[in-house]
From TrEMBL:
<feature type="signal peptide">
    <location>
        <begin position="1"/>
        <end position="22"/>
    </location>
</feature>
<keyword id="KW-0732">Signal</keyword>
<protein>
    <recommendedName>
        <fullName>PknH-like protein</fullName>
    </recommendedName>
</protein>
C-alpha cells in the first residue's frame, strides 16, 4: 500500500511502500512487448485503497476529455492530442487543513508514432509556460481566491521504459491568506501510450512547500508505470 499522511498534518509524509509487484515480477508476468491496450492501462491505475486509507474516488467523475493545466495562473488546460482512446481515474484525500488529489490519464494510440506525436504536442505547451506568474485576488459570484504567485519548473523525466517530462508547479498565496499548492504533472510515453499523471497537495495556513512532495509524486508515477513495464 502507498500510504500518505492526511493533509491536516500540513505536509505529505514520505512513508510509501512500493507495490509488491514492482520490480519483482518474472518475465512471464510482464505485459507483451507490443502494443499496450486500454485494459492494461486501466488496470495499471492506482486505486484509492492502494494509496492510503483516507483516499477515495470522487462521487462525481472528472471530465475524461479534459486535461489539467500545465502552466501557472489561470492558464487554459491543453487539448487532448487527437487520435487516442482516453482512460482516466481520479482520487482525492480531503483533510482539515488541505487536500490531496491524483489525476491519472492515459492516451492510448494505435501505434508508437502517433503516441510520440501526441507527446510532442503536449511538450510544446509545456515549453511555452512562463516560469512565474502573479495573479491578483479574484472574487466572483461563485468563488473567492486571494492573490498568489505560482512558479513552474520543466524537467526531463525517465522512468524505466517511459520517458518524457514533468512540470513542477508551486503556488503561494499572499501573506494575509497563507496557503500553498504543489503540483506535479508528469507526461511520459512508452510504446503507444502517453501517460499524464498529476499529483497535487493543497495546504491552508502555511507558506511552506509540502514536505516530501518530491518523493511522493515520483512514487505515485513510478508505481503506475512499473505495472505496465
Amino acid at each position: 500500500m502507498l500510504v500518505t499522511a492526511r493533509p491536516r498534518r500540513v505536509a505529505v509524509a514520505a512513508a510509501f511502500a512500493l507495490l509488491a509487484v514492482a520490480g519483482c515480477s518474472s518475465d512471464d508476468d510482464k505485459p507483451d512487448a507490443g502494443r499496450i491496450d486500454v485494459t492494461t492501462m486501466r488496470g495499471a491505475f492506482l486505486q484509492a485503497a492502494e494509496v492510503g486509507p483516507t483516499w477515495t474516488a470522487p462521487t462525481a467523475s472528472a471530465d475524461a476529455q479534459r486535461m489539467v493545466s500545465f502552466c501557472g495562473g489561470a492558464s487554459t488546460p491543453p487539448s487532448i492530442p487527437p487520435g487516442a482512446d482516453v482512460v482516466s481515474a481520479s482520487l482525492a484525500d480531503e483533510g482539515e487543513r488541505g487536500a490531496q488529489t491524483l489525476e491519472q490519464l492515459a492516451l492510448v494510440y494505435p501505434d508508437d508514432k502517433a503516441a510520440r506525436a501526441g507527446q510532442s504536442l503536449l511538450r510544446a505547451v509545456a515549453d511555452g509556460c512562463a516560469p512565474s506568474v502573479s495573479v491578483p485576488a479574484a472574487v466572483t459570484s461563485d468563488r473567492s481566491e486571494p492573490a498568489y504567485t505560482e512558479t513552474v519548473e520543466l524537467r526531463d523525466l525517465s522512468e524505466g521504459a517511459w520517458s518524457g517530462f514533468v512540470l513542477i508547479r508551486h503556488k503561494t498565496y499572499e501573506a494575509r491568506h497563507p496557503g500553498t499548492a504543489d503540483t506535479a504533472v508528469a507526461v511520459l510515453t512508452s510504446r503507444n501510450v502517453v501517460l499524464v499523471d498529476t499529483y497535487a497537495i493543497y495546504q491552508l495556513n502555511t507558506s511552506q512547500a509540502a514536505a516530501g512532495f518530491e518523493t511522493d509524486w515520483k512514487k505515485l508515477v513510478g508505481s503506475v508505470v512499473q505495472r505496465v513495464g
